[in-house]
Design goal:
guanine deaminase activity; seven-stranded mixed sheet; nine-stranded parallel sheet; Guanine deaminase; single chain; binds zinc ion; EC 3.5.4.3; 2 domains; alpha/beta
Length: 435
């Protein structure tokens, strides 16, 4: 126990959903996080912990919030270079910007360079776990896993499987794709903190044989994850209908091939029927809300309240590169605006929960990440809640009027914060970023 450290600050985390009980919100102004050998020992009042662990090394982050690192549950690392490309909707955007950018990942040096930049950008923004799409090239996933492994990071990724409706240079075949994925699973799944995610891009770019290959792989490795896109854009929904005329709706394409499971992440899930919502909830699949992307591509408004009422699990994603920011703060602020347009003023607690413990639970990873309960990996961030002048004026006003509290603190981060708010990022107790 000689590597014990005490991080002083304002500890904040959830023990369960804040929508169930306010008692699931833990916040203490003068508190500390005790970490040993990369794991959380406990979190609590600083005076008590300082006395209990007199030999621990003290790291002073007083005046900042210590919270679990963010989980970005949907983004494309191979689109790191193409955020903010002007104009158009999903299907044109893919053809004009995405596919040419992804083509470059045939080159392993490029995979290495962008993997590195991608991880740095995640850490700079306080994201400690990502569920990421690689490109169709197996080396793109291989190298991202390798880089994440170096940091002892919880990385979920997979090589894209797609065999139609895309340029030939980005298509695999169901056979080759399956062989490549099986090799990647054997090499990386559960190695360190890496987890493999079977990645059929979306129904449009997958033939029935490709989806069957995904189904076979998941049947053989049931603790892998599955990620895809669902009902992002109306043109896409119509296109799926023409490609799969026997399927009554978009979701049923994935159901038919056994791909709707409690380990399936469905990015966007905007244009859904009540029946689709019920079936997603019943399967305990995970919808990933990506508000900056949905606004940027004009895709539509994700219906959080309806999803909650149906019992669906929603988590948060940036969807880089259609998403416009790596920042989860920014993403939560955008989600708030989308939900406002739906007439649902989502609380700051709900927003932060869905990017931390709520996401960890949906992924069956809450024993590893998402909170400061004892034994969790020490993946945490140090957050400066006054990193801009606008925040400082707001803070001083709320202090003066005795209205400063954790809810105001979090909501201010959602509306104002970006990477400047992240003072430091720790993965398994190691500092990987310091502002
Ligand atoms: Zn996406």
């Amino acid at each position: 126990m000689n590597e014990m450290k005490l991080y002083l600050g304002e500890v904040f985390y959830f023990t369960d959903s804040p929508l169930l009980s306010a008692e699931n919100i833990v916040y203490e102004p003068d508190s500390a996080l005790c970490v040993c050998d990369g794991l959380v020992v406990e979190a609590g009042t600083s005076a008590i912990l300082l006395q209990k662990y007199p030999k621990a090394e003290v790291v002073d982050y007083q005046g900042s919030v210590l919270m679990p690192g963010f989980i970005d549950a949907h983004l494309h690392y191979v689109q790191t270079e193409i955020t903010g490309m002007y104009g158009r909707q999903l299907l044109d955007w893919l053809n004009q910007y995405t596919f040419p950018a992804e083509r470059a990942f045939a080159d392993t040096d490029h995979c290495r360079e962008i993997s590195h930049a991608f991880l740095k950008e995640l850490f700079r923004n306080g994201t400690t776990t990502a569920v990421a799409f690689s490109s169709v090239h197996p080396q793109s996933a291989d190298i991202l896993f390798e880089e994440a492994f170096r940091y002892n990071m919880c990385m979920l990724t997979g090589k894209v499987q797609m065999d139609q409706e895309a340029p030939e240079y980005l298509c695999d075949t169901p056979e080759q794709g399956e062989a490549d994925v099986r090799a990647l699973i054997q090499k990386w799944h559960r190695k360190g903190r890496n987890k493999y995610v079977i990645t059929p891009r979306f129904a449009v770019s997958c033939s029935p044989a490709e989806l069957e290959a995904c189904q076979r792989i998941h049947a053989d490795y049931p603790d892998t994850y599955i990620q895809t896109h669902l009902s992002e854009n109306k043109g896409e929904v119509d296109f799926v209908r023409t490609l799969y005329p026997d399927s009554p709706d978009y979701l049923s394409v994935y159901e038919k091939y056994g791909l709707l499971t409690d380990r399936t992440l469905l990015a966007h899930a905007i244009h859904l029927s009540d029946s689709e919502r019920k079936r997603i909830a019943k399967a305990q699949a995970i919808a990933v809300h990506c508000p900056t992307s949905n606004g940027f591509l004009g895709s539509g408004l994700y219906e959080m309240e309806k999803a909650n009422e149906a019992g669906m699990q929603t988590v948060m994603g940036t969807d880089i590169g259609a998403g416009t920011s790596f920042s989860i703060f920014h993403t939560l602020g955008a989600a708030y605006q989308v939900q406002q347009l739906n007439g649902y003023p989502m609380s700051a607690f709900e927003a932060f929960y869905k990017a931390t413990l709520g996401s960890a639970k949906a992924l069956h990873l809450d024993q590893e990440i998402g909170s400061f309960l004892p034994g969790r990996m020490a993946d945490f961030i140090v957050v400066d809640y006054n990193s801009t002048f606008a925040q400082l004026y707001r803070y001083e006003y709320l202090k003066r009027t005795q209205a400063w509290n954790i809810e105001n603190l979090l909501f201010g981060l959602m509306t104002h914060a970006d990477d400047r708010a992240v003072r430091a990022t720790y993965i398994a107790g190691q500092c990987v970023h310091e502002r």
